[in-house]
Amino acid sequence: MSLKTLKTKKELKWSANDIVYQIYPRSFKDTTGNGIGDLQGIIEKLDYLHKILKVDAIWLCPIYKSPMKDFGYDIADYCQIDPLFGNFKLFDNLVKKAHGRGLKILMDFVPNHTSDQHPWFIESRSALKNPKRDWYIWQKPKPDGSPPNNWLSRFGGSAWTFDPKTKQYYLHSFLPCQPDLNWRNPQVQKEMRKILEFWLVKGVDGFRLDALYHIIKDDKFRDNPINPRYIPGHDDPYRQFLNVYDRGRPATLEILNKFCGVIGQHKNKFLVSEVFYQTKVAELKTYYKLCQAGLHAPFNFNFIRLPWSAWAYRSFLDNYEENLSEGDCPNYVLGNHDRSRVASRLESRKKARLLAMLVFTLKGMPFIYYGEEIGMSNVPVKNNEQLDPWGKNVPGFGLGRDAYRTPMQWSAQKYAGFSKTKPWLPVARNYLFFNVKKELADKKSFLSLYRNLISFRKKSKAILEGNYYPLNIRSQNVFAYVRESETEKVLVLLNFASKTQKISLPFAMAELVCNTFLSRKKGQKINLNKLYLKAFEGYLFKLKK
Ligand code: BGC
User: What whole-number distance in Å separates Cα of residue 417 and Cα of residue 29?
Assistant: First the structure.
């Protein structure tokens, strides 16, 4: 192997405490002037991610060749890069430059469905006897010509579309132009394995597995039962039925196990999977058990769903900490390209700061959704300007995801320094106040909080390795815990209440690392016998060992 290859194929190890930064490439940085982000843009921002934010890995939302009906989650060729984002020369450069900085790359892998423009589907739909017919899920109509069963598409309407040429229906859990693959077909599995290998050879460090809970469906195609709690007109029509037979089937675990088999044959690779109907710790646990330790983690989306109370967060964490075994990698997500930005969901940047302090002081992998670190909020997009097919197909339920996918706010320049042209989605109105450049210069900014927490975390044995001890304190609104290793002890106090809380703890003087508002001087000694936590304020202290 030449020195050059050795350099580009550098192997980076994963750690259970790595910080992963999710990039939605369309919205990260546009360098070609078409209003859409690209690979060169990501390359240009690697130093920001590595030197300023100090994350350890990036997850790239899909960059494969795609008609972009679901903005890349409809793949027409898994082994090509869409020209909108760049080409392999740029991709190789991205891998090389990221790896050169010690940054790992997770590719978004979409195994459940392809685009209807994928050559496999074009073949599959061409004739009943086509060898690829069984690569997708085809069924005869009912005698009256209606779809084979009552399964619904996540993005509106029936999950079945009639194909007049062969007079059968095909299944699509999402858009009609996203036909579901048949994962019971061994050739599909073989082909997918080859694709994973292709990217591993390209040097990627792992994959985020998209929509894994949809991957296997009932082989008898039974109707889903009616959901007795569904309120017509009020609830998203998808909720009419309970998803008993069309997703979350027990065989999902077998498929995940196959992915682990492929990845496990390579050193230093990692998988994180979207199994998001599984939120209970016991259920997450079954996903951990499937693969060798440290190889795979099911996403933990609980911090997106928990009610806002100190007790809810503490109970979840007590349970999570207690149930995960050595080697299971806990992880924390506050938002992503499908979910509201955390500052908007909580309707408060103070609360978002509090959760930042929480995730960066826990053991495990924090996932940062691009822009979260500068306190970006959802950007309202007018109904008639919506681009997301989900919002357009199922109007009236606030399902559109455009608001959380708007351009990254880099500076106070026009279009927030994201692009020189009008971007594909609107830039937040508040970009003059919330942008990387301004926040870097402001010692109390959201970004400064992220930087403070991350720098401290990286050097803190107590956070990276220590045990977690929740404290029973008088104020029920304050979640208090200690993280302690052999050599270091830290204390975290998080006030979930909208009122000041008085704390009295028997730790005497403690050294302040930071408070969430960054209003108090680092390193000062604070008396914990009498401490007032302002509304939604958090404190991180070093305690004497
Ligand atoms: C992705 C979505 C996408 C859907 C269909 C998901 O779970 O995260 O963004 O629209 O899969 O591919």
Answer: 8
pLDDT reading at 3 higher than 90: no
Provide the annotated active-site residues. Answer: 210, 274
Protein residue with its CA nearest to atom 11 in ligand 1: 211
Strands 270-273 and 296-298: parallel
Distance of CA 210 from the midpoint of ligand 1 (Å): 6
pLDDT score of 280 = 87
Q: Which residues of the chain form CATH 2.60.40.1180? A: 467-543
Confidence of residue 293 (pLDDT cuts 50, 70, 90): confident
478, 501 contact by CB (below 8 A): yes
Which residue is closest in CA terms to ligand 1's atom 7? 211
Ligand 1 environment, Cβ below 6 A: 70, 73, 110, 174, 210-211, 274, 337-338
Give the percent of the chain with pLDDT over 90.
Answer: 93
pLDDT at 277: 64
Instruction: Tell me whether strands 509-515 and 538-543 are parallel, antiparallel or unpaired.
Output: antiparallel
Angle formed by the axes of helices 281-289 and 310-323, to 10°?
Answer: 30
In CATH, what class is 20-114+184-454?
alpha beta
Range(s) within the chain of domains with CATH label 3.90.400.10: 119-171
From-to residues of CATH 3.20.20.80 in the chain = 20-114+184-454
CATH code for residues 119-171: 3.90.400.10
- pTM (two decimals): 0.97
Question: Residue 66 and residue 63: Cα distance in Å, rounded?
Answer: 8
Do 88 and 81 form a contact (C-beta atoms < 8 A)?
yes
Q: What radius of gyration, in Å, describes the C-alpha atoms of the chain? A: 24
Of 63, 73, 273, the one to substitute when testing ligand 1's pocket (max ligand atoms within 8 A of C-beta) is 73
Q: Which of 26, 70, 243 to mutate to test the pocket of ligand 1 (most atoms within 8 A of CB)?
A: 70
Closest atom of ligand 1 to 173 CA is 5
Return the CATH fold of 467-543: Immunoglobulin-like (2.60.40)
